[in-house]
Amino acid sequence: MNLTKNRQIKRKVKRTFLKKGTCSRLFFYLLNREYGFPIDEEEKASDNLAGGIMQQGY
Predict the structure, then answer these.
(1) What is the pLDDT of residue 35?
(2) What is the spatial distance between Cα 3 and Cα 51, in angstroms, rounded to a whole number?
(3) Cβ-based neighbour number of residue 36 at 10 Å
(4) pLDDT tens figures, 10-55
(5) Is the dihedral of CA 13, 16, 21, 24 positive or negative?
(6) Conformation bin of residue 26: beta by default, left when phi > 0, alpha when psi is -120 to 50
(7) How far apart, in whole angstroms, are the C-alpha atoms of residue 53 and residue 57?
(8) For the residues of 21-41, what is the DSSP string, one character each?
(9) 40 and 29 in contact (C-beta within 8 Å)?
(10) Among candidates 10, 11, 8, 44, which has minimal Cα distance to 26?
(11) At 56, is the secondary structure helix, strand, or coil?
């Protein structure tokens, strides 16, 4: 993979992270897209996992 392509991929991932807002939601987004099951409600439900469960640090 050449350097330009690698930078484009990194930029795309960063933009997607900024759009989704939390790492847990981004993770579910990427998994759903990879396996062909884009389900937005489940991605939104994963927001409670950010920072531990509901910011409790678990």
Answers:
(1) 92
(2) 33
(3) 6
(4) 898 888 888 888 888 888 888 888 899 888 888 888 888 877 766 6
(5) negative
(6) alpha
(7) 6
(8) -SHHHHHHHHHHHHHT---HH
(9) no
(10) 44
(11) coil
pLDDT over 80 at 58, yes or no: no
Evaluate if residue 8 carries a pLDDT over 80. Answer: yes
d(CA 42, CA 19): 16
**What CA–CA distance (Å, rounded) separates 35 from 54?**
27
The tokens for 48 are 């409670």
Residue partners of 12: CB distance under 8 A and separation at least 6:
none
In Å, the largest CA–CA distance within the chain is 42
CA distance 30 to 56: 25
Place of tokens 């937005």: 40
The predicted model scores a pTM of 0.65
